[in-house]
Amino acid sequence: MQIDNFSYQLPDGRQLFDHLTATFEPGKLNILLGVNGVGKTTLLDLIAGVSEQRHLPFTGFPTMQRIAYHMQGAPFTGTATVFETIKMMADLDRPAENFQVDQLPENLQVIAHTRLKDLSGGQRQLVLLAGVCQLERDLYLFDEPESGLDVKVAVAVIDQIKQLVARGKTVIMTTHQFRNLPTENVHVLVLAGQCIAFSGSPAELMAETDAETLEDAYLKTDA
Ligand SMILES: Nc1ncnc2c1ncn2[C@@H]1O[C@H](COP(=O)(O)OP(=O)(O)OP(=O)(O)O)[C@@H](O)[C@H]1O
Predict the structure, then answer these.
(1) Which of 114, 126, 154, 161 shows the smallest number of beta carbons within 10 Å?
(2) Which parts of the sequence belong to the ABC transporter domain (predicted)?
């Protein structure tokens, strides 16, 4: 999945991307890093085709119907219960499987019959995330999936994402949290200066910056 020499202006005329080239590795967790406002969400929106039609420089990406997109802060309320909501998403792509309560992540089983409108913001985010993971797609996009979640819950969220990768799925995720990130099967892209300033494995980024952790390596980049 490749973006080649892509330039993009915001509606107010600001240049967000300038000759940006990026390769996303299939079957891996692609982690897109960069400071606030650099354009990570905009890039995910463009890949998903939600904001506007994909431009020609985007090649090798699945069609919109084959992409699952967990958007940041998506409004997700209503009178449906946790179980009904996740079952509905499971049934979208795997109607024959008859999704059951015990297939919910453990932390959602106790609130399986609570209505979304009665959940906390973090719990709603967990429901949406679990639903997205039930979809059977070729590419999964997660925009800051652990934001606003307790660190213990965030571990479980990253585990769900790792399970997708273990099943051979391609994931692109933005994050500002380094604590629970895996390093195996991971491809890192650093968005800075209107283009991809680094693309490679966590080990390569750490070697290039002479750092011992991915967080330190990122801090040493010019992002
Ligand atoms: N619809 C829009 N109209 C005008 N500007 C926009 C629009 N959407 C986003 N922007 C601008 O695009 C820039 C990039 O925003 P984006 O949300 O992609 O950044 P980000 O890297 O995901 O940031 P964060 O880490 O804070 O979520 C910001 O300067 C923002 O103001």
Answers:
(1) 114
(2) 1-218
Q: Measured from the CA of 12, which atom of ligand 1 is nearest?
A: 4
Pick the CATH number of 66-177 from 3.30.450.20, 3.40.50.300, 3.40.50.10540, 3.10.20.600: 3.40.50.300
Sorting pLDDT into bands at 50, 70 and 90, what band is 110? very high
The residue to mutate among 8, 9, 10, having the most atoms of ligand 1 within 8 angstroms of its beta carbon, is: 10
CA distances from 179 to 115, 146, 221 (A): 31, 11, 18
C-alpha 165/C-alpha 46 separation (Å) is 22
Ligand 1 pocket test: pick from 41, 71, 176 the residue with the most ligand atoms within 8 Å of its Cβ: 41
Q: Average per-residue pLDDT in the chain?
A: 91
Q: How far is it, in rounded angstroms, from Cα 192 to Cα 222?
A: 7
Pairs from 59-64 (Cβ < 8 Å, separation ≥ 24): 59/1, 59/2, 59/3, 59/4, 60/1, 60/2, 61/1, 61/139, 62/137, 62/138, 62/139
Which one, of 184, 181, 161, 150, lies nearest residue 33 by Cα?
A: 181
Q: What ligand 1 atom has the least distance to the C-alpha of 176?
A: 25
Nearest CA to ligand 1 atom 26: 36
In angstroms, rounded to a whole number, what is the distance separating the alpha carbons of residues 185 and 124?
A: 29
Ligand 1 centre and the CA of 16: distance in Å?
Answer: 9
Task: Report how far residue 167's alpha carbon sits from residue 175's, in angstroms, rounded to the nearest whole number.
Answer: 22
